Amino acid sequence: MAREKKRRNSGRRSPLAAAVLIGVGLLLTGGVYAGASAAMAATNDTTQQSSNLTAEDGKKLFQANCATCHGLDMQGTESGPSLYGVGELAVEFQVSTGRMPLAAQGPQAQIKPPQMTEAQAQAIAAYVQSMAPGPKYPSAETIDGKGDVANGAELFRINCAMCHNVAGAGGALTEGKYAPPLTSTSALHMYAAMVTGPQNMPVFSNTNLNLNEKRDIISYLLFLQENKSPGGFGLGDLGPVSEGLFIWIFGIGTLIAVTVWITAKSN
Length: 267
Prior knowledge:
Blueprint: H1 2-11, H2 15-51, H3 55-65, H4 67-70, H5 87-96, H6 118-131, H7 149-159, H8 161-164, E1 171-172, E2 178-179, H9 187-196, H10 211-226, H11 240-266
Helix pairs in contact: 3-6, 5-6, 7-10, 9-10
């Protein structure tokens, strides 16, 4: 009995050890909390600072990232065109989609992850607008997606489908150029493309398409984004090409398989 009691006593933990464990746990918890709080505070500070950018901040960003090609006075150089008259809408479109700053010369600027935040893009746009006024941001109503979808679909087929495909899936052009897909393009950038005519796209002035018609086209494209392939499989949205290939492979293939099966059955 004495030996068993001694073993039990030797297996018990000291009250000091429990206090040490509790203290270590509290220190770890406090350290993690303090680190998380500091990170959140830094993120909030960065967000607040970036959201308060002005045209003067845009000037500094422009000089650091854009002036090499477009010139300090936006007059253009051998590497980039003049920005006089492009306005804030074109600048926001090019910078926010990652097309600018340009990574390398090519048939056209590639869409890539943007190098600047939206606030920085808007600051550069504000600076360019103050120095070289041009097309401005549209009203909220123009890009609200509540226009006439049916009319927008007809206008899109007449004016845009030859390059962007009737389903907005994009398409190849000449000399290595292409019309980008519109399956994830924002309403603002749809409007900006129609007004500023980036890359090979023509400019649609109010004489070609008035504001209501632009609104209808945007509404149609937003409808397509929300209702992908309502008729069934999209098959790449390539129209008769993919549909004919599907019918040839599976339709003719099925007929051949049935013919072989009937022949084997009769033999």
